[in-house]
Amino acid sequence: MSRPARTAANLWLAKALWDLGAIQFGDFTLGRTTLHSPIYINLRLLVSKPRALRRAASLMHHEVRTLQSMRHPHVAPFDRVAGIPFGGLHLATAFSLMSNVPMVYVHPSKDREAAKPFVEGIHQRGETVLLLDDLVTGGGNVIETAAFLGMAGLKVKDVVVLLDRQEGAKQRLKANGYNLISILELETMLNYLMASGKIEEDWYRKSINYVTSRRPR
C-alpha cells in the first residue's frame, strides 16, 4: 500500500469509528494497565456495521499482502490466522473469509492460567499463526494468547491490529519476539479528529498529553 493510500485508509478508519460512536472522551480506567485515560475506543462496535467490518478486515489483509510482497518481507509466511479473544475474533473471521486462510482460536476460559491450552480449529504442530486483534495497549493479551498457541505447538511471529494506543505494546512485543503491525495509531487518529473539527481542543490536548506520557522512553 502506497503512503497516500495508507493515509487514506487510516483516515477512513478514524472517521468510521467516530461515526459509529466508538470514540468517547472522559476519565476511563481500562483493564490492568490503562489508568485515567481521557479517551476510550470501542472497536467492537464494528460488528454492528457489516460493511465497516468487511472494510476493516480488508485493510488488514491488504497491509499484510503488501508487507509480504516487499523485497525484504516484513510479515512471515503463515498457515492460519487467529483472533485474540474477544475483540479480535470477529476480525479474524472476516479476514479468514476474505483471504481464504484457515482460522483457529484459543478457547476462552474463566481461569486461563490453570486451564490447559485448547485451540479450536484444525491445526498441526509447527504451523505459523498470524494473530489479529482490534486494539492493543500494553501487549499483555497478545503475549498470553501467543503463549497458549505455543503450548499447542503453534508459532506466532506477526501480530496485526486495527489500533495501537501507543502505550508500549510495540516495544514489549518486539522484546518478546513478535512483530506488531498497526493500521492506525492513536496519535494519528487524534490529529485527524482535531483537524476535521470533530473534537474540542481541550480534549485533544488532554489526549495527546496522555499518549506522550505513556510512550516508552
- Contiguous low-pLDDT stretches (5 residues minimum) are none
Gross morphology is globular
Instruction: Compute the CA-based radius of gyration.
Output: 17 Å
Question: What's the CATH C level?
Answer: Alpha Beta
CATH topology annotation: Rossmann fold
Assembly classification:
single chain
- The strand order across the widest sheet is 5-4-3-6-7-8
- Helices and strands: which structural class? alpha/beta
> What is the β-strand count?
8
Approximate strand percentage: 15-25%
Helix segment count? 7
Look at the structure and give the mean pLDDT. Answer: 91
N-to-C terminal Cα separation, in Å? Answer: 30 Å
The biggest beta sheet is recorded as: 6 strands, mixed
Order of helices and strands: HEEHEHEEEHEHEHH
Domain count: the total is 1
Helix content: 40-55%
Describe the structure.
The chain is globular, with a radius of gyration of 17 Å. Strands 5-4-3-6-7-8 form a 6-stranded mixed β-sheet, sandwiched between helices. The protein has a single domain (3-214), classed as Rossmann fold. It is an alpha/beta fold and 217 residues long. Helices cover 42% and strands 24% of the residues. The longest helix is centred in the first third of the chain and has 19 residues, at 50-68.
